[in-house]
From TrEMBL:
This is Acyltransferase 3 domain-containing protein. The keyword Membrane applies. Keywords: Membrane, Transmembrane, Transmembrane helix. InterPro entries: Acyl_transf_3_dom, Glucan_succinyl_AcylTrfase. It comes from the Bacteria. Residues 12-363 form the Acyltransferase domain. The keyword Glycosyltransferase does not apply. It comes from Stakelama sediminis. The lineage of its organism: Bacteria, Pseudomonadati, Pseudomonadota, Alphaproteobacteria, Sphingomonadales. Pfam families: Acyl_transf_3 (PF01757). One of its GO terms (molecular function) is acyltransferase activity, transferring groups other than amino-acyl groups. The chain crosses the membrane at residues 21-40, 46-71, 92-112, 149-169, 181-204, 216-233, 245-267, 287-305, 317-337, 343-362.
Length: 392
């Protein structure tokens, strides 16, 4: 039986899911250094089998981030009280750290990529002053870029579109329609049906670009996920439906992953040469993506809806951790390359350095008031930890 709270009260389970989703993202990006997939910097020790566990989360990790961000946005709207103030709050909380990130945090990532992959010989200072803001392409990299901070840019755009839509539709009927549509088995079937259309019909085996104006597959998957999370933040009816169907969703997610795993292990590229076979792979991806998110929300609602003293701090730290983590990973691996360490040692050092560096970035940014907006925190500390709301 699920534990329900009134819509005006905080759902601790969703807080823990948000923290877990971003922690998993950090671990995922560390692992990217060691697998064959393209990344900004690569270890000399590539572990091919590690692709298989990565595929267990690859399909749904970003959809989950947008769902939990939409859910958090609903809570922020309740606190601010009106769409205009909400838009102002979100713009300040997202665009300031986004600008800071692009100017200060991100540039070392393309520099490391150019040095390690293309033999770029200039120093970082030269690169930052002469190349990063040149608005041109160097060895296939368009500069400047936002790299991992694309998520923040997309989140701001989705929020502004949502606010504009809400201003046009001033009615509770949309929420009521959502409750009816997703208040039963639709909460499981509709997201999967939509994603099946995205991956098998509209964008079969198309990769994301994270370039905003040329990223149809990402918008088709993530904007609805954000809207779903936002609407879920005001719906006890749909949360109860998730409580009824999350176990079925978990089974479907595992079946989707098992299908992908079987293809990767036994058929790989040969399997993906035929159109029907591509549809099977993309369909399994869609089923895993849609059902895993519902299963994880159900688990958070059923088992994690409890408060602990560390929750408020971790919830607040999520955004600063996100802003800095990839720069630490990329630059950390760059520093480790000349040492010739074994792969397990590189991974262990990267993991410890990333967690420690993220924590230091958060604590320093939190303590120095002028830095707080730059690292994604409110300018003034909340009077009570309970009132602290994550921006993502």
């Amino acid at each position: 039986m699920t534990t329900q709270k009134p819509a005006s009260m905080r759902h601790y389970g969703m807080d823990w899911l948000r923290v877990g989703a971003f922690a998993l993202l950090i671990l995922y990006h560390i692992a990217m250094v060691f697998i064959p997939w393209n990344y900004h910097v690569k270890s000399t020790h590539i572990v091919h089998w590690a692709v298989l566990p990565m595929l267990a989360i690859n399909a749904w990790r970003l959809s989950l981030l947008f769902v939990v961000s939409g859910y958090a946005s609903r809570a922020l709207l309740r606190r601010t009280g009106n769409p205009g103030e909400f838009a102002r709050n979100r713009s300040l909380r997202l665009l300031i750290p986004l600008a800071f990130g692009i100017i200060v945090v991100v540039p070392v990532q393309p520099w490391v990529e150019l040095v390690t992959k293309y033999g770029f010989t200039h120093s970082f200072a030269w690169f930052w002053l002469h190349d990063f803001f040149s608005f041109r392409t160097i060895d296939g990299l368009f500069l400047p870029n936002w790299n991992h901070l694309w998520f923040v840019g997309y989140l701001w755009v989705y929020t502004m579109v949502l606010i504009a839509g809400a201003a046009l539709i001033r009615s509770n009927r949309v929420q009521q329609f959502f409750d009816r549509l997703f208040g039963g088995i639709g909460v499981l079937l509709i997201p999967m049906a939509w994603l099946l259309m995205v991956h098998t019909w509209w964008f079969p085996m198309v990769g994301e670009t994270h370039m905003l104006f040329d990223d149809g597959i990402a918008h088709a998957a993530y904007f609805p996920a954000f809207l779903f999370g936002f609407a879920l933040g005001g719906s006890e009816t749909v949360m109860r439906a998730i409580g009824r169907w999350w176990t079925v969703a978990a089974v479907l997610a595992m079946l989707g992953y098992a299908t992908i795993l079987a293809i990767e292990l036994h058929w790989t590229d040969n399997f993906l040469q035929g159109g029907t076979r591509i549809t099977v792979y993309a369909g399994a991806h869609a089923v895993q993506q849609g059902s895993a998110v519902i299963a994880l929300i159900g688990i958070a609602d059923r088992f994690w809806n409890h408060n602990y003293p560390i929750r408020a701090t971790l919830t607040e730290a999520v955004f600063p951790f996100y802003i800095i983590h990839q720069t630490i990973i990329v630059f950390g691996m760059y520093l480790l390359l000349p040492a010739g360490l074994p792969g397990w040692a590189q991974f262990a050092i990267l993991l410890v350095a990333t967690v420690a560096g993220c924590w230091l970035f958060y604590r320093v940014g939190r303590a120095i008031v002028p830095l707080r907006p730059l690292v994604g925190l409110r300018l003034h500390k909340p009077q009570r930890k309970e009132s602290s709301l994550a921006v993502v």
